Amino acid sequence: MSKRSRVNWRGYIPAITTPFDADRQLDLAGLGRLLEWLEAEGMHGLVLAGTTGEWTSLSPAERKQLFAAAGDQLGKRLPLIAGCSAFTAPEVIDFAQAAADHHFEGVLVTPPPYLRPNADEIVDFYGEISKHTPLPICVYNWPPGTAIDMPVELLERLADIENVVAIKQSTSDLRSFVGTFFALNEKVRVFGHSMDEHGLALLQARGGDGTMGAGAVLGRVHPDFYNHLWAGEIDAARACGVKDRMILDHWYTRELVGRFGSGPAVLKAGLNVQGLPGGFVRRPLRDVAEEHIATIRETLVAAGRL
Fold first, then answer.
1. What pLDDT, on the 0 to 100 scale, is given for residue 42?
2. Backbone angles phi, psi at 131, to 5 degrees
């Protein structure tokens, strides 16, 4: 039996922001409101404490607190995946256990950042996690954040590890994503389909699992891309994709780096403009400068959110 069948993850599963209050403290009340909104808007699942969730500035205790709050609120209502990236396998395993204790279905893990381990070391890292984690693993290839762009050959080795059930291929290189998809889609789930004409053509021709996108700032527009696709309503799916593409083109560079600040800051500004609990970013990041808020608002107006 294919390992991909062990989980039912599919569609649009955003990596959500982590609300901090004006004192840059974890805002659990804001998180609760954000989670209720995301569920009401029809998300197919959520990633907590991913790149967008600023895991890099959360203490271990805060990350576990985040998992407890989100899991206890939504864990039995839709799939939750815990961002458990860390420098060492024991740290990842510790976070994974905390997530498992609060109804999460899986973990999302990058290679250790900053260290730039080689291929064999990366395989060892995921292998150790697999032996001791209570949850299925989604391998996260995130070159802008780790300085490592894992080639298909390495991802194939990782897909052979027992508890690896999915790959999040976050590359801006279409050929790299397509190569990963064709090599591994029958063995594990592959996320990273673009919600544009390229992604639509591939999804129509060969199927696919979905997108673990950032922020869900357009609400149900994002999951409706897949809802319409699954229903055979291709023009409606295309219209949703056009709106999703506005966010990428207006707010991000081609390398998926925020134009007006960090990715979390840009997405939080987009939520705040809509009256949603985006909150503030935590140092060393800066909130989006006031001079750029009008541009963010213009995009949301064009996408029909305001």
1. 98
2. -70, -25
